[in-house]
Amino acid sequence: MYSDMPRANKASMEKAPLNRRDFLRLSVIAAGSAIATACQEVLPPTIPVGTSTAAPSPTPSVKFSLAGGNVDAWTWIKQVKVGVSEGKCEKVLLRMNSQDVEAMPEGDMFTAEVPLAGGENQIRAVCRQPGGGEAVSDQVVYNVRLRPGPTALIQIALQNGQIVLDGSESLPAAGTQDAIVEYLWLAREGNPAPLPELTGEVNRPSISVTPAASDGEYYVRLQVKDQAGQEDISTIYFVVENGEARIPDYDTENPAWLETAVVYGVIPFLFGSPAFQAIGERLDDLADLGVNAIWLAPINIHPADDYGYHVEDYFGLDPAYGTEADFRDLVQASHERGIRVLMDFVPNHTADTHPYFVDAQQNGPESPYWDFYNRDASGNPTHSLPQWTDIPDLNYDNPEVQRMIIEAFSYWVREFDVDGFRVDAAWAIHDRRPEF
């Protein structure tokens, strides 16, 4: 995954020891491009209801439930289900963020797709009964973990020797009417030569750029801003070879720096404590060795007795290694020495201690996270690495899983300026969902 690519759209068996050779053999480097709140504790899956006294006269009792408990959401539109186990509802409404959405009958359930906003979304189900009575469920909270704001998208073309960059298809923030009002183009520092049209910021949806004669890669950034002041940035590059511009195949070509990369594998806890500071103190030694990229063994939150491949939070750093500020300092200090920083990232599976898997195990198919995990025909979680039954596979048929992982990759690029990733067990995701 390239940071400078266009954005597209344990009862376990004994573990085999993970030696360095196996560690390296499993590795595939994909170089290039903590949420502030931790995952909320998940409540039991069925929320009891309270009945209101809104009816002018006694009405038949009703028992109904809003499926799922408080839950993280990785989507802007969520399907919500209401089950009626006793009595009758002539109409079911889902009341969210002060708006009502009517749920449609579907077998013995009522379902509706409801739009969500960033952060907490409070929702109740309302049952309107024959005779005018009304019952209201207790509140459930959907916590949208997606980053709000617009999405900067760049289309690139080569026309009559000019590089045409179009940002007009950038997307406004989901669920809002906040239009994009600024399209700021800027050539990135370090290009082989200046681009005449981009000696400063240019504010318009699309631009044409005259390629310079000097060979190399030329990077251009687009920053979009909407009416609410929310921003997003995307970067793209083109190549000049033998004085001629061309658009690279971003899916198959490596950026030039990777072809001559000298990558040093860093096992953080072996450098000292706190690890991020200790690594920073050895950067000059690494640079003297000719190292121009460091590959950090997993640094996300994981069980204390694990090396790091049993992820419990894709958006958090192992506190034993240091703070977020420590990590930012490490990345910046590396860049000052011409050293790129790669993270070892684990999108194929989580630990069985991840809050989502714990909830799924406790609540079964009623868990909102049941479908976050890949399962066999009997509903048992699958394990691409069968020697480790405590790392269940994620389900990449689930759009929320896809979006969660894309957000996680992007987070470390956007918030910490990491340069790329070594993607653990990428082959296993490819086997299940090759197009992803």
Description of the molecule:
This protein has 436 residues and is an alpha+beta fold. The chain has three domains: 20-32 and 258-432, TIM Barrel, CATH 3.20.20; 46-144, Immunoglobulins (Immunoglobulin-like, Sandwich); 155-248, Immunoglobulin-like (Sandwich), CATH 2.60.40. The protein is 16% helix and 32% strand. It is built from eight helices and 26 strands. The strands form five sheets. Strands 2, 3, 4, 5, 6, 7, 8, 9, 10, 11 and 12 form an eleven-stranded mixed β-sheet that branches. A five-stranded mixed β-sheet has the order 1-26-25-22-21, with helices on one face. A five-stranded antiparallel β-sheet has the order 16-15-18-19-20, with no helix packed on it. Strand 7 and strand 8 form a beta hairpin. The longest helix has 18 residues, at 399-416.
